[in-house]
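Homework help board

Subject: predicted structure for assignment chain

Our instructor gave us this sequence and asked us to write out the predicted structure in token form, then describe one feature. I got the tokens but I'm not sure how to describe them. Can anyone check?
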Amino acid sequence: MTTPAVEALVLIVLALVQVTGTQTPPSGDITVVITGLRSTEGKVLISLYDKAEGFPKDRSAVIQAVAIEPERSGQITTVFESLPYGDYALAVLHDEDVNGDMTFGAFHLPKEGYCFSNNVKVRFKAPKFKKTSFTLNGNNVTQTLRMVY
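My token output:
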């Protein structure tokens, strides 16, 4: 036999489970604008990461990615939609020769364009997630990035 206090507690717990089970976590969109494309050749590969592990080289760490044909305007825009609030970073490659990887020339210098979120400058090696990360905590965040060649 249960007491009224136990019955009330059970009802409260069931109500909490029901309320929390139906709520969706807050989410928003990340709009990415890439400027300074030098040609309409190949594809622009945009990779989105949500943690430092694997950034920016491990393709299995990418949570979303798109491949977009460059436009004559030298600019492209895409949107990653309905992402949970949190920290994110972007790595972008203008894969002009469409081989899926960065192509290097003499002295191991990149022959294709690239950029990272926050327009972080590259110094001898790829930047860390901490420098390139930004926080999505509202309806929409925009990252406007300039391609480096």
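Reply (TA_rk): Your tokens look well-formed. For the description, you could write something like this. Confidence is low (pLDDT under 50) at residues 8-17. That's the kind of observation they're looking for.
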